[in-house]
Design goal:
Blueprint (H helix, E strand, L loop, with lengths): L1 E2 L12 E2 L23 E2 L8 E2 L4 E2 L9 E2 L4 E2 L8 E2 L4 E2 L8 E2 L4 E3 L13 H4 E3 L4 E5 L17 E5 L4 E2 L10 E2 L3
Antiparallel strand pairs: 1-2, 3-4, 5-6, 7-8, 9-10, 11-12, 13-14, 15-16
């Protein structure tokens, strides 16, 4: 975590701590400038090795001095170089390390914009299943998300079966039998 750009040092304390944004991995370095932190990493003063950017933040530039908090409507796993857009069916508040799935009875709203931070709260990103349908787990596809790719959601709002009444936000298929 130190360097010395002149000869004649007799104690380790005569070395200078590596500057913010750089890692001094080997002892006896004459200069710190050949070891800048990579994007997705950060290096506080005196760093021996690069530190992955913490979950919920991002390090978008080499020589990042302090990780930036992940933006609303985006998420940032550990080591993020940049924020990742929150997928539909999820919401991502400020500082999210991963997307948060809309709860049972809710689906993702369509037509939202990341630029207007419309995926930042549950209220903005999730809406109840419409009347005449119910929330149903989709066992054919596991829940997943990937960088900038919207994947299959682990649930859907399925149409109610004949003879069954499903109000808005129904989370089971047999709430009540319709009177005929």
């Amino acid at each position: 975590g130190t360097h010395r750009n002149s000869t004649g040092g007799v104690l380790e304390s005569s070395c200078t701590p590596c500057v913010v944004g750089y890692a001094c991995e080997q002892p006896g370095l004459p200069d710190y400038k050949g070891n800048p932190c990579a994007a997705g990493m950060y290096c506080p003063r005196g760093s021996v090795v690069e530190t992955p950017c913490p979950a919920g933040s991002f390090c978008d530039k080499p020589i990042t001095t302090n990780p930036a908090t992940c933006l609303p409507s985006y998420y940032c796993p550990q080591g993020s170089e940049r924020p990742i857009a929150c997928p539909n069916g999820y919401y991502c508040p400020l500082g999210s390390p991963s997307p948060i799935l809309c709860p049972p009875g809710y689906i993702g709203r369509s037509g939202l914009s990341h630029l207007r931070n419309e995926y930042n709260t549950f209220e903005a990103a999730c809406e109840l299943c419409p009347p005449g349908s119910y929330w149903q787990q989709n066992f054919s596809q596991p829940s997943s998300y990937a960088n900038d790719v919207e994947c299959t959601l682990p649930y859907t709002c399925a149409p109610c079966e004949e003879g069954v009444y499903c109000p808005r936000g129904a989370a089971i298929n047999a709430l009540s039998v319709a009177n005929s």
